[in-house]
Fold:
Amino acid sequence: GQVMTGRPSCITLDTPLLKLLKLFHAKQFRHLLVVDEEGALVGVISDRDVMRCLGPERYPNATVLGRITARDIMSTDLITVTPGTSLDRAVTLMIDHGISCLPVQIDSTLVGILTNTDLNVMLQVLLQSIPWSSSAELVKTEPFHRHN
Structure:
């Protein structure tokens, strides 16, 4: 079955920070993909990127915050996959690069996004299909070991 989220929500390079905040809050997104005028993927913004941007040490006054756009805070070092990428490879990429989403493209056309949430939903479905998984214990040892 399909694991990725199709038709992901995208923003433009000039989307203001305040609109980003509203989108993350209202839609409960954790990632937004940034596209240029032609619709080509040029960056990704996570909710963590936005929160880092809001720290007073970064932008000490509201006037400066009002001028910030997606272009200013997006990550441009993109790692993407195709619909044909194996799930194993996609998970390995996410772990190895410490990222929580992978844009999915066919040639240079954006067709979806694979996120940690998508993977967790898939894992839940898989575990529910295994008879013993509902009775399996998460930890089979003592709660913790104290070192003196």
